[in-house]
Amino acid sequence: MISITGLHKSFGSATVLRGIDLEISQGEVVSVLGSSGSGKSTLIRCINGLEKIDGGRVTVDGFDVSKPRELADARKRSGTVFQLFNLYPHMTAVQNIALAPVEVLNVPRKDAEAEARRLLQQVGLSERADAYPAQLSGGQRQRVGICRALAMKPSYLLLDEVTSALDPEMTAEVLSILANIAKQGTTMVFVTHEIEFARSISTRIAFLDKGQMIADLPTEDFFSDKGMAMPRVAQFLSKMRKD
Amino acid sequence: MRYGDFTPYDLVLLLQGLSVSLALFVSTTLIGLLVGTLWAVIRFYRLPVLAQLVAFIAELLKNSPVLVQLFLVFFGLPAFLKINVTPTEAAVITLSGNSAAFIYVIAVSAIESVGRDQLEAARVFGLNRWQILRRVIAPQAAAFAVGPLTGLLVNQLQVTSLISVIGVIDLTKVGNILNLRTLKPFVVWTIVGALYYLTAKLVAYAGARLETRLRAHTKWKGL
């Protein structure tokens, strides 16, 4: 379980998260919605320990991410997929995926690379297994990014606007893969602007506004009268649907 | 045959001088690479005191003439510490230190050229600092550094000629000896210059080859 209580985070004088409470249990797919600057990405970066939290507590399976000794254990349980892919440019797709299993989990290189090829096959990239990131399209790069996260066999997959840098066609190819992963029962925290997709795969929707979580509802409720009863949510949804 | 004529043995002398220059260049480059990179890593880890000390030493070495440093090591150190420093030792110490200082600068900027996104990607998957440095930063930094490094080394090769003034029989010193004997400065210095030129070209060629290899991943190979 990922448990967030009273999370505060500011950058200098700008407060980005103002007391977030959120619990994510095994098997859930939680989409985090909200307009740009609402703190969605920062929330993910607090879960995987890329940002130091200023107040409150974030634990992953009981491991406190603000404690250096426990952060390593917390990170072993979660896998992050980045908005801008963040692939290692000097490594092939297979090497990108196999690096962490080899270095962190001490998996023999042969096994790690075989597993990497299996993952790439699952996302339809077996032909491109030995290509460098520079030789891949955006959608292909993000599929490699997803495989890289899955290779660590994470309990939780953290997805930070993973389709924001992609055109609609590439977005579709990445989302269909994520839908598959969600079906297999991987717990996901999904920060996104893809509202319709969030609706189709999520069990729950968390809505952030100016650093506060103003809604945390089961998906059906969020998109029904209950969500629409909240002015800020109604406003957001109507705007996003018009675009 | 007159005393002032060139003899076949002069060729041997020139090659001996060249090999001394080359040996000094290669050894001081290797030491400089080792020390300069180590300094850059110290800075990367932001080790307190050591990082500042390293930056200070590099500053001193970069901002004073190599010839002055050479005189300090060869004449100054023995007088101050009451030790014996041979010309070769003085040459190795001075040139290594000088190369290290400039390689430090290149290595620091090469390490900093690797994007934050790379560190974050490695960090979230649990790699420790040493693994990140070795597997993610070093290969990318090396590709970045080879170009400036090649430029530096071509220059450092020419700088080795300074050691002739303290009596190391390198290529320049051999040129000096031949010049004094034959009194044909134009011929002698043209030959010596050409030998430096060819060696420098070789260094530049090796650097270019290495750069192509390290940057292979950025080359578009088609779908």
Automatic annotation (TrEMBL), chain A:
An annotated GO cellular component: plasma membrane
InterPro entries with a match to the protein in the record: AAA+_ATPase (IPR003593), ABC_ATPase_HisP-typ (IPR030679), ABC_transporter-like_ATP-bd (IPR003439), ABC_transporter-like_CS (IPR017871), MetN_ABC_transporter-like (IPR050086), P-loop_NTPase (IPR027417)
GO MF annotations, alphabetized: ABC-type amino acid transporter activity; ATP binding; ATP hydrolysis activity
Residue stretches making up the ABC transporter domain: 2-235
Cellular compartment(s): Cell membrane
SUPFAM superfamilies documented for this protein: P-loop containing nucleoside triphosphate hydrolases (SSF52540)
Keyword Transport set for record: yes
Membrane-related topology note: Peripheral membrane protein
Keywords: Amino-acid transport, ATP-binding, Cell membrane, Membrane, Nucleotide-binding, Transport
Source organism superkingdom: Bacteria
Family label: Belongs to the ABC transporter superfamily.
Annotated protein name in UniProt: Amino acid ABC transporter ATP-binding protein
Taxonomic lineage of the native organism: Bacteria, Pseudomonadati, Pseudomonadota, Alphaproteobacteria, Hyphomicrobiales
From TrEMBL, chain B:
Transmembrane intervals: 20-45, 66-85, 91-111, 132-154, 186-208
Subcellular localization: Cell inner membrane; Cell membrane
Domain of life (superkingdom): Bacteria
Keyword Ribonucleoprotein carried by entry: no
Keywords: Cell membrane, Membrane, Transmembrane, Transmembrane helix, Transport
Recorded family membership: Belongs to the binding-protein-dependent transport system permease family. HisMQ subfamily.
Protein name (database record): Amino acid ABC transporter permease
Organism lineage string: Bacteria, Pseudomonadati, Pseudomonadota, Alphaproteobacteria, Hyphomicrobiales
